[in-house]
Design a protein that fits this description.
The chain is mainly α. The protein is built from 24 helices and no strands. α18 (about 330-345) packs across α20.
């Protein structure tokens, strides 16, 4: 139905066909990112209201279908139901255990009946592979699913999502247009996809308009799904934060928490926004709460940074240690959090050789703009300036309005001796979002002043 905007959300919380490096460098050097147009007001939303939790009913359903497959191991329909329910709980909690169970259930279903007569099992497997960041398998299985069920919109949506994460932007757009063509009543799925597409391509106003359509469609349902509705509110906050509208972002995050109390995404993003507003102690409290709900490495690192700025270095060091530990807890964790760990290492000038190696290895199989940004940042810290320059150019090739992309590209230009380009990019990042990160924004300002 909707994806979580993986690239960006997993990266900092990730395109018509890829262009050659030389062209990318040329576009950036003449200013393809350009000054952003004056933002339009965020569309008005209805007042936020609490929605009924379906967590208990979902867990009851999980136990019911788990009993079914225990009684009848050939019940492929029950396995399909289990896979979908585990994926829903993954969205609710972020708990990787649900992802592992979803993968196991989907594979069990397909062992009973192959995809040709069990396309729903294939769809669940592709969805779980996507959430596991196994984007190549997700793409290939989603493509197979579209051939088995060309009359449905979901297979095309998932195919587009996987292509997007791999940097195969022309194929992603084609899949989304097929999704739109085959969609009868999936206004939520279609609009959330186009919202993310427009965000990646620099059209935040268009992204907000599509997101409003998705949110309205969710509310029009007989029983609006709590997590999806809160996700839409949270996404409004993410988009307004990108353009530096911190007070508006705070309201959207609080609205998300009204819909879904303790929704971990909104809890953490509210902490980031409070930090941007200069309310550090409140921000620390939010991140402490977020990491207790779900210890995402990005949240843990952000909490460590705020402890550091508050002079609580022992606590900061403890959080930094946890970041590295999380990625080593298992293969799936390493796959899910690789970019976050690389960003942490590069941001804090730790083990630059290791950060570069991890970034380069992932980029070989996942060449989206955020992968390019990660590679460029790690290459800079490893002293590989020409490679960093090429990767930074690619990261800006879609005009994605993310101040971190601009900041990192600006710092790379500075290291390469391109003062004019560094000044332009750093100025743009700070103009768009003056407090995009409590540690990196001051470094951007200091670097700009020194140019």
């Amino acid at each position: 139905m909707y994806r979580k905007a993986i690239g960006r959300l997993q990266f900092w919380n990730s395109q018509p066909g890829r262009i050659g490096t030389a062209l990318a460098v040329a576009l950036v050097s003449v200013g393809c990112a350009g000054p952003a147009p004056a933002p339009k007001p965020v569309p008005a939303l209805p007042p936020a209201a609490p929605l009924v939790s379906d967590e208990e009913s979902t867990e009851i359903s999980i136990r019911f279908f788990a009993k079914k497959v225990k009684e009848d191991p050939a019940n492929f329909l029950a396995y399909n139901k289990l896979a979908g329910l585990h994926l829903q709980r993954l969205r609710d909690t972020g708990n990787v255990a649900y992802l592992e169970k979803a993968l196991e259930a989907a594979r069990s279903s397909l062992e009973i009946f192959p995809a040709e007569i069990n396309p729903d099992g294939l769809g669940h497997l592709a969805s779980a592979e996507f959430d596991a960041h196994d984007f190549r398998k997700a793409r290939d299985h989603a493509l197979q699913w579209t051939r088995l069920r060309p009359d449905r919109s979901a297979p095309f949506g998932l195919l587009g999502d996987a292509c997007l994460e791999l940097g195969e932007y022309a194929d992603a757009e084609k899949a989304y247009r097929e999704m739109e063509r085959s969609s009868r009543d999936d206004a939520i799925g279609v609009n959330t996809r186009w919202a993310h597409w427009k965000e990646l391509h620099g059209d935040l106003d268009g992204a907000l308009a599509h997101l409003q359509e998705a949110h309205a469609a969710a509310l029009s349902l007989t029983a609006p799904p709590r997590e999806l509705t809160a996700w839409c509110r949270w996404q409004f906050g993410e988009l307004t934060f990108l353009r530096g509208e911190y007070a508006a972002a705070e309201k959207h995050y609080r609205d998300a928490l009204t819909v879904y109390p303790n929704y971990y995404r909104a809890v953490a993003s509210l902490g980031r926004t409070l930090a941007a507003l200069g309310r550090r102690e409140e921000a620390i409290a939010q991140y402490e709460k977020a990491t207790k709900i779900f210890p995402d490495p990005g949240y843990v690192a952000a909490l460590g940074d705020l402890y550091h700025l508050a002079g609580r270095q022992a606590e900061a060091d403890a959080q930094y240690g946890i970041v590295s530990q999380i990625s080593r807890l298992g293969k799936l964790n390493g796959q899910l959090y690789n970019r976050q760990v690389v960003q942490f290492l590069a941001d804090h000038d730790r083990d630059p050789a290791e950060a570069y190696q991890q970034a380069a290895e992932e980029y070989e199989s996942r060449k989206d703009v955020y992968g390019a940004a990660t590679l460029g940042w790690a290459a800079l810290k490893a002293g590989r300036i020409p490679e960093a320059r090429r990767a930074a150019a690619e990261s800006l090739s879609l005009n994605t309005p993310d101040p971190r992309l601009l900041y990192q590209a600006g710092m790379i230009a500075r290291a390469a001796g391109d003062t004019a380009e560094a000044r332009r990019l750093l100025s743009q990042a700070l103009k768009q979002s003056p407090a995009f990160d409590p540690l990196q924004a001051p470094l951007a300002r200091k670097a700009l002043e020194a140019l």
